[in-house]
Amino acid sequence: MTDKVLVIGAGGQIGTELLEKLNELHGSSNVIAADLNNSPAFANNAFEKLDVLDKEGLFNVVKKHQINQIYLLAALLSATAEKNPLFAWKLNMDGLFNVLDLAKEKIIDKVYWPSSIAVFGPTTPKENTPQYTVMEPSTVYGISKQAGERWCEYYFNKYNVDVRSIRYPGLIGWKSAPGGGTTDYAVHIFHEALSKGSYECFLSEHTHLPMMYMPDAIKATVDIMHAPADQIKIRSSYNLAGISFDPAEIAQEIKKHIPGFTISYNIDFRQQIADSWPKSIDDSESQQHWGWRSAYDLSAMTGDMLLNLRKIK
Ligand code: NAD
Ligand code: SER
Fold this sequence. Notes:
binds nicotinamide-adenine-dinucleotide; 6-stranded parallel β-sheet; alpha/beta; 2 domains; binds serine; UDP-galactose 4-epimerase, domain 1; 3-stranded parallel β-sheet
């Protein structure tokens, strides 16, 4: 059977790039983009204006296009969620239930839902954070992701729902803008390095965080979704590691390409969120179970980001 894929939140930082990859894999006529608003990124796809909280609307879109797989990307990210915690909880949880229930009722047969390094908290070991460890998230975003992970595993165990998930680190790409997270600085810094030659960072210089270049994240996403079901032994969410660095280190790397580049610091509420997260991640289970390997280190990512941003600016 040909897969018919629905991407909800397709116009966001990840969706924009994931859509391109899914078009390659499935053919663009088999990939439907859904979001609150239309976007030029959907030029090759059918578009459905959809609020994931509208359960009936979601059901109608799934039926109309005979969808069998959903990638659920609609969510409020860490920084935006702190400004509206109750709505963040509602969107991040009810959106997930609306999709998981379609799989429980066997209307669709596979779900992708991303979790985050935000499931970890201040009491988690910070270096090489293992898959299984203390998890006491202190942000509403992290609480919603941790609860989401528990529900994914519950739906797998109780209802045999084929749900797959990754705990993404902070994602960095040149094709799309970040959507309100704590790691957004690592995208903004490239744009401002090119446009102004300087960047004022909202995190302090030694805030070390797990990050990943978008091509690696997209590869991991399609790899986990296309792996045989028996290789996916963790049905909550998998740790995934790419690159770990702090603002001073990425600034140093950018200086190799733009010698006059300067960074200054003006920290805000996002510092507290970042301080509660790990510095680096151990992703042994992803490597062992479904063959994950990242391709980009800090130097390769920086070179590729600047090369591509220079072409489009
Ligand atoms: P984003 O904010 O860039 O995009 C989210 C998209 O969802 C937007 O296009 C938005 O319009 C849409 N959306 C919001 N509310 C909606 C609703 N009610 N119905 C339908 N669409 C709605 O987010 P992203 O960075 O692409 O993240 C996607 C997923 O990946 C989220 O679950 C996020 O938590 C997770 N994640 C992202 C990162 C990262 O660094 N980008 C890291 C870890 C996890
Ligand atoms: N990049 C995301 C955020 O900062 C991590 O989930 O919210």
